[in-house]
């Protein structure tokens, strides 16, 4: 029997597997750079390929939620990761822009399959009061892997960008193997009356979830701008695109080092909307720093600031989405909320490359900073609906309070 405040073994094992997966997961930010350098197309044209990838991730996320319920959590995670490995190797071996585009779309169709079951494993294994901590630790686990991934990207990127996709494929296969070995076997599912009640769950009709989906999509738009546009922005300012790997490493280190701050009493006392608003203000400050940064040290300082904002936003948002779900609806709520990344994935490459092409890096990052300030103000739109429903807005903050030894 586990002690109060102690996370179950399945959560820790999943976190360890995702660390391994993250070690190779810095290929996509360099996809646009690979296309422009290897095939000689413009930045604006190259941005269409990541946009097609983003479009494909929307059905991928929803299918992942369905497969998790029908095939089981573990099977779906393994299937999705294996598909990612195969398509990443296809990009690395492609000999034409058409081949890269086809592989990118296929990658998008499998890329999000493993996210809903991964998040559902955490939601299933934890109570509402533990979920903020659990999802924040998932973010930290990805950041730990990202620390190594950033260094890998900086090294392999100076040699050949295609090797980044090979490294990503290897990490996906390693993660799939770990999940297959360490996670509990999927149980055979038998429909019952409870399932009939669950069939009436409609996350797309939940007003609070839909508001959060809008916020989540705009947040994902900002985050993906950093992942996609930062290497291009550095290149335009006379720095190496591969230096983005160093900035990503600093971001990961910041998220890991700042984890204890989440349990400070003042932060724990904040409601979910207030904590999210604070996170968006920090994101705005960091991106404003990118708008004026023309040297690597200045960019490093800006990276630390926005990473602190990301620390506050990501774990809290997923915990709140999980807590909104009625019994039996967690997987579908998380899958619906997670489509925010697919919607943003369509717009982010096109928006970022067009702004860089026609307005410049300063306008891009200043615009993203302004958007974060709008998001900070908008968080209080959900304060009243949350209070009226009596959801776990307060329970999610309780997870940040010091637990019993």
From TrEMBL:
It is a multi-pass membrane protein. The keyword Oxidoreductase does not apply. Residues 10-384 form the Major facilitator superfamily (MFS) profile domain. It is found in: Cell membrane. InterPro entries: MFS (IPR011701), MFS_dom (IPR020846), MFS_trans_sf (IPR036259), MFS_Transporters (IPR050171), Sugar_transporter_CS (IPR005829). Keywords: Cell membrane, Membrane, Transmembrane, Transmembrane helix, Transport. The chain crosses the membrane at residues 12-35, 41-63, 75-91, 97-114, 135-157, 163-183, 208-232, 244-262, 274-293, 299-321, 333-351, 363-382. It comes from the Bacteria. Its main location: membrane. This is MFS transporter. It comes from Streptomyces silvisoli.
């Amino acid at each position: 029997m586990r002690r109060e405040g102690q996370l179950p073994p399945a959560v820790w094992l999943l976190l360890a597997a995702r660390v391994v997966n993250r070690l190779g997961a810095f290929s996509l930010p360099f996809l646009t750079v690979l296309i422009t350098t290897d095939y000689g197309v413009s930045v604006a044209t190259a941005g269409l390929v990541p946009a097609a990838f983003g479009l494909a991730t929307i059905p991928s996320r929803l299918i992942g939620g369905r497969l998790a319920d029908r095939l089981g959590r573990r099977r779906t995670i393994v299937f999705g990761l294996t598909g990612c490995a195969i398509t990443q190797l296809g990009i690395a071996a492609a000999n034409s822009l058409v081949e890269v585009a086809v592989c990118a779309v296929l990658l998008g169709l499998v890329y999000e399959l493993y996210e809903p079951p991964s998040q559902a494993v955490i939601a299933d294994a934890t109570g509402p009061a533990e979920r903020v901590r659990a999802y924040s630790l998932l973010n930290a686990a990805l950041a730990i892997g990202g620390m190594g991934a950033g260094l890998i990207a900086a090294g392999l990127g100076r040699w050949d960008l295609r090797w980044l996709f090979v490294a990503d494929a290897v990490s996906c296969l390693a993660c799939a193997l770990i999940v297959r070995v360490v996670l509990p076997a999927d149980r055979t599912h038998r429909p019952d009356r409870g399932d009939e009640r669950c069939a009436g769950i409609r996350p797309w009709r939940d007003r609070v979830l839909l508001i959060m989906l809008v916020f989540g999509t705009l947040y994902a738009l900002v985050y993906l701008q950093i992942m996609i546009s930062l290497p291009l922005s550095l290149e335009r300012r006379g720095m190496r695109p591969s230096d983005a790997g160093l900035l990503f490493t600093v971001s990961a280190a910041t998220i890991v080092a700042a984890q204890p701050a989440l349990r400070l009493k003042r932060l724990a006392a904040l409601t979910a909307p207030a904590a999210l608003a604070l996170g968006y203000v920090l994101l705005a400050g960091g991106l404003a720093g990118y708008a004026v940064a023309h040297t690597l040290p200045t960019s490093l300082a800006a990276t630390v600031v926005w990473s602190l904002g990301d620390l506050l936003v990501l774990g809290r948002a997923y915990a709140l989405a999980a807590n909104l779900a009625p019994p039996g609806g967690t997987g579908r709520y998380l899958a619906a909320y997670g489509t925010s990344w697919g919607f943003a994935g369509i717009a982010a490459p096109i928006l970022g490359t067009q702004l860089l092409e026609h307005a410049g890096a300063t306008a891009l990052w200043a615009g993203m900073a302004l958007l974060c300030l709008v998001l900070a103000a908008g968080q209080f739109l959900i304060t009243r609906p949350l209070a009226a429903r009596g959801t776990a807005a307060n329970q999610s903050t309780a997870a940040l309070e010091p637990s019993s030894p």
